[in-house]
Write a structure and sequence with these properties.
The chain has nine helices and twelve strands. The protein is α+β, with helices and mostly antiparallel strands and about 450 residues long. The protein has one domain. A hairpin with an 8-residue loop joins β3 and β4. InterPro entries: DUF4331.
């Protein structure tokens, strides 16, 4: 869900699978934006002896579009390399890892950060250390403290982190993909059962995170920090990609596949759930290989979403107004493909222009709030999804309610949503490690020896 195993081919290549993208004005540093791109879904905390790591053969990128074209105007590139310090052991570590330079750590990983702006590249940092994974209480004692040392400053007011974190996305994966069952409302399902609480299918799972915090002025079209929410220059588009070399060949001497040729995109992500539940299965792999600027070809699946047709069938009698609504879903097109223009939501816009492109759209002039609402904009909190995406935002509920018709009146005042549209949810919340109040914000990953199946624990 979100983008965990969202397409047939990328589900076979988890190290390049972009699971979630977040973009928000930093709550503790309001002159900066934090962008987070997660990869490698459903990580088992006790996945040794070959624990999870970024791909040395994958080009990871975070893209900013600020020109209204749906194309990347600024890109941050991340390239990784792993080392083996002790070639005589099978172990990830031969004793406790107490620092990033600890010789007990047998397979450290390092990375570089490059900024590309309109074709011009500049290396911002080389040989930055990623932290080890959270092996367990003996191998990685005081893991939270150790991970903090992997937060790097790469210039004034700029930070970066790349390493394992607890997955902050939450959704009832088991139930949702069982004929779109929502446990709190399954008594109304076509195949009914007693109502129940939702079950977070991501509980106990870790991900690998690339987190970047930079000044707002690094990302805007004119290099300024906007103060007017209605200023078109206040809006940026954000998405992330993973790319591999065009061909891979097995090297008999090394025993590994070696890439050749130019990089080709194999995964991308902007809005949560777009490829997951909007794009048909036959198109998903093609979508992953294409840039957002070509998303006009997928607009038909946005304005006539399959899920909107399934809800009235799977929940008989619950969504009669949605079933009767035959117009194109201009509300979803605005939310997912162009941003919301002026005049739709009073005092707010995150419109990037008429080019239809799946990106997170963040109005950087909207300040963070001390009392964030997980339902974001639909609950009156303009600092939340679909204005960018914060870690606390309940995007599954927001998008379910939007698909169920709750946002249609924004563009079609004659429509009155079904009563269920404002109540529908999957009934889950984050059951992994608590979020942090500072960069990189994601919680401490579940540790190997501390965890049992389905139960996360962090030292």
């Amino acid at each position: 869900m979100s983008s965990h195993r969202e397409a047939p081919e990328i589900s076979k290549d988890p190290v390049a699978d972009n699971t979630d993208v977040y973009a928000f004005v930093s709550p503790d540093k309001a002159d900066t934006v934090t962008i987070i791109a997660n990869f490698i879904p459903f990580q088992n905390p006790y996945g040794g002896p070959n624990f999870y790591e970024f791909g040395d053969d994958v080009l990871y990128q975070i893209h900013i579009s600020n020109s209204g074209t749906g194309k990347a105007d600024i890109s941050y590139q991340f390239r990784f390399r792993a080392e083996i310090r002790n070639k005589k052991t099978f172990l990830y570590n031969t004793g406790p890892i107490t620092s990033l330079k600890d010789s007990n750590w047998n397979r450290p990983q390092f990375y570089s950060v490059t900024r590309v702006e309109r074709g011009r590249s500049r290396i911002l940092a080389r040989d930055l250390a990623a932290p080890p994974v959270n092996v367990g209480v003996r191998s990685t004692p005081n893991y939270a403290k150790l991970a903090r040392t992997a937060i790097h400053t790469i210039g004034r007011n700029r930070k970066v982190f790349a390493g394992q974190r607890a997955d902050a996305f939450f959704a009832d994966l088991g139930s949702i993909f069982d004929l779109a069952t929502l446990r709190p409302f399954q008594m109304a399902h076509l195949i009914p059962s007693a109502a129940a609480m939702g079950v977070n299918g991501l509980q106990g799972s870790n991900v690998h995170t690339i987190a970047l915090q930079v000044p707002i002025t690094d990302l805007t079209r004119d290099g300024r920090k906007p103060t007017d929410v209605l200023d078109a220059k206040a809006v940026i588009g954000v998405y992330a990609t993973a790319s591999r070399r065009q061909s891979r060949m097995l090297d008999d001497q090394l025993g590994v596949s070696v890439g050749h040729g130019p990089y080709k995109q194999v995964s991308r992500l902007g809005n949560p759930l777009f490829n997951e539940v909007v794009v048909p299965m036959a198109e998903k792999d093609k979508w992953n290989s294409r840039p957002p600027s070509e998303d006009k070809r997928y607009a038909e699946y946005v304005v006539k979403p399959e899920l909107a047709g399934l809800l009235p069938v799977l929940y008989p009698g619950v969504f009669p107004k949605l079933a009767a609504y035959k117009k194109d879903r201009a509300d979803l097109a605005a939310i997912l493909l162009t941003g919301i223009p002026k005049g739709v939501v009073r005092g707010f816009q995150n419109f990037t222009g008429p080019v239809q492109a799946d990106m997170l759209r963040l109005n950087v002039a909207v300040p963070p709030t001390d009392s964030p609402n997980p339902l974001g904009l639909v609950a009156g909190d303009a600092a939340g999804f679909p204005n960018g995406r914060r870690l606390i935002d309940d995007v599954v509920t927001v998008e379910l309610r939007a698909v169920a018709g709750l946002t249609i009146p924004l563009v079609d005042p004659s429509y009155k949503p079904d009563a269920a549209a404002s109540a529908i949810k999957d009934g889950t919340s984050n059951t992994n490690s608590p979020l942090l109040d500072r960069f990189p914000y994601l919680g401490t990953p579940a540790g190997g020896s501390q965890s049992t199946p389905g139960t996360p624990a962090a030292s």
